[in-house]
Write a structure and sequence with these properties.
Layout lengths: L2 H7 L2 H6 L2 H20 L7 H16 L3 H17 L3 H6 L5 H15 L7 H11 L6 H15 L2 E8 L5 H12 L8 E8 L6 E6 L2 E6 H15 L1
Parallel strand pairs: 1-2
Antiparallel strand pairs: 1-3, 3-4
């Protein structure tokens, strides 16, 4: 049997799988699937702020601007920390379109040249058009959660009635890191202050909350007394 004849006797399906054209098609399919996977947020977030943060993550991933977007939002988060009244201003229902436009321009000014592909500029406009500027601070926090998850980090939120010193936070991080709660991941400590808890701590990691606050103990005590009486 000649080479030509043996070639003709091979199943047509086998011949197709060996052609360069089909190989290129398969490679393109795998590349497209990988690209879609890379743009998907690493963890699921809930709430309106989580929805917007996830949408922003996908948009930034598609334009390869995750790093610049993360830095831009981190800058905006610092603005919120310095100006405690800003969240209230952004949530005001009386803001006119002109007011919103000026606010967006001012927020962009704070970012300087960080917003390379104007991803944040477009996002701020979307929030403004949908009357959602009031959730911007929470979106900044949620986007940080997504970026941490993408880096293999797990956020450890520690809420106290007064600011904790760095040594205490480091000790707490070391204890949690050795526990099953960390799942062997690198921890990112996020300290928060909430006078309403009155004392003690509220520790949040992943989907777990450890409430060691004084307010929680008082609530439990009141319930116990009510049930007893």
């Amino acid at each position: 049997m000649s080479l030509r004849q043996s070639h003709r006797t091979l199943p047509r399906r086998v011949l197709r799988t060996k052609t360069p054209q089909n190989l290129q098609t398969n490679l393109r399919s795998h590349a497209q699937a990988a690209a879609v996977h890379d743009t998907k947020p690493p963890v699921a977030l809930f709430g309106l702020d989580g929805t917007y943060a996830s949408a922003l993550y996908t948009a930034a991933a598609k334009t390869s601007s995750l790093d610049s977007t993360s830095k831009s939002l981190a800058t905006l988060a610092e603005v919120f920390k310095k100006d405690t009244k800003l969240s209230g201003i952004l949530s005001a229902p009386s803001l006119s379109p002109g007011d919103k436009s000026q606010i967006v321009q001012e927020l962009q000014r704070h970012m300087g040249g960080l917003d390379k592909g104007e991803t944040i500029k477009n996002f701020l406009k979307t929030l403004s058009d949908n009357n959602r500027l009031g959730i911007l601070r929470d979106v900044c926090d949620k986007f940080g959660v997504l970026m941490g998850a993408a880096r293999g980090e797990m956020e450890l939120t520690v809420t106290s009635a007064a600011k904790l010193d760095s040594k205490l936070l480091q000790r707490l991080e070391a204890v949690v890191a050795k526990s099953e709660y960390s799942q062997g991941k690198k921890l990112k400590v996020v300290p928060k202050v909430n006078p309403d808890i009155m004392g003690g701590l509220v520790v949040e990691i992943g989907d777990r909350t450890i409430d060691l606050s004084v307010s929680s103990k008082i609530t439990k005590m009141n319930k116990l007394l009510t049930d007893t009486l």
